[in-house]
Specification:
Blueprint lengths: L7 H14 L5 E12 L2 E15 L3 E5 L19 H10 L6 E7 L11 H15 L12 H8 L4 E6 L2 E6 L2 H4 L1 E7 L14 H12 L4 H8 L5 H12 L4 E5 L2 E7 L3 H12 L8 E5 L10
Parallel strand pairs: 3-4
Antiparallel strand pairs: 1-2, 2-4, 2-5, 5-6, 7-9, 7-10, 8-9
Helix pairs in contact: 2-3, 3-4, 8-9
């Protein structure tokens, strides 16, 4: 049941669904963004993609974030924002089940933190609730961020290999730590792979020494050579961060909670002259996968 206690983004998605399709959605699911701290070691962020779905005689997809595109269908070219949802819909059954779908991504694509896996996961959950289990897997089913969106736990990171999934203790709140995301507002480049075995080594350090041990592993995985993220990382480290690396168009740092005010001040002062706007700074804890909202 959607009520006043429901998050505003969920309520808005339900409202848009009813305005677009003329009736309330039958089900709403949010799948969280899987943040790849290192390749294969991921946490779920508190934000993701919301998918609202309802039965239909045909297929229609609508994006809250690209509303000027109008309603898309599976016939003809599919807009970029609908590719993951269309792939999941087409793989759910043959023919694809009739579905109205509204997608709402809570983080701008320009951050480079969206992989499409969170959108695929939200669509999968909504279709499973509406039409039952799928006939087979879809192309993103094995993606670490997809698996994290479905299986994340609070206070844990997710260590994945092609055949395994392990929850690694990563209780930042108890350790007085936070993940700081520095959105630089710059065009992001393709992600570079982290060194082989980095995720397994970091997970081993977390099991032995706790969350603060991750910091040096993050910095070791940062690829220096891009002046703006390099400057952001050095500024954060000088102000008290324990480590960090560039992910997408952001720098992600492990920071003591007590040092956050100084780190925020230093980043804003150091980076603002080189940006079209001050950097956006978000803090996060590992977040559990969510139950259905409707």
């Amino acid at each position: 049941m959607i009520g006043l206690a429901t998050s505003p983004e969920i309520r808005m998605t339900a409202y848009v669904f009813e305005r677009v399709h003329g009736s309330p959605p039958a089900t709403i699911h949010r799948a969280l963004i899987g943040l790849p701290l290192l390749d294969g070691l991921t946490i779920a962020l508190p934000w993701g993609t919301i998918a609202a779905a309802g039965p239909s005689a045909g297929h229609s997809l609508y994006s809250v974030n690209h509303h000027t595109d109008g309603v898309a269908s599976l016939s003809g070219p599919v807009p970029h924002w609908a590719r993951e949802s269309a792939a999941v819909l087409n793989s759910h059954a043959d023919p694809a089940p009739g579905t109205h779908l509204v997608i709402n991504r809570e983080i701008p694509a320009e951050t480079g933190l969206l992989t499409g896996a969170e959108t695929a996961a939200a669509t999968f959950l909504a279709l499973r609730a509406l039409h039952g289990p799928p006939a087979g897997p879809h192309p993103l089913a094995g993606h670490p961020a997809y698996r994290t969106a479905l299986h994340a736990r609070a206070a844990h990171a997710v260590l994945t290999t092609p055949g395994t999934l392990e929850h690694v203790p990563f209780d930042l709140a108890a350790a007085g730590l936070r993940i700081l995301i520095v959105d630089l507002g710059a065009r992001h480049s393709s992600p570079l792979p982290t060194p082989p075995g980095a995720a397994a080594r970091a997970a081993a350090a977390l099991r032995v020494s706790g969350p603060s041990a991750l910091g040096p592993h993050l910095t070791d995985a940062h690829t220096f050579g891009d002046p703006l993220p390099d400057r952001a990382l050095r500024t954060a480290l000088d102000a008290g961060a324990l480590g960090g690396r560039k992910i997408g168009a952001c720098v992600v740092a492990l920071t003591p909670t007590a040092a956050l005010p100084e780190i925020r001040r230093a980043l804003t002062a150091r980076l603002t002259p080189d940006l079209p706007r001050p950097p956006r700074l978000l803090t996060a804890l590992p977040t559990p996968a969510e139950p259905p909202h409707l």
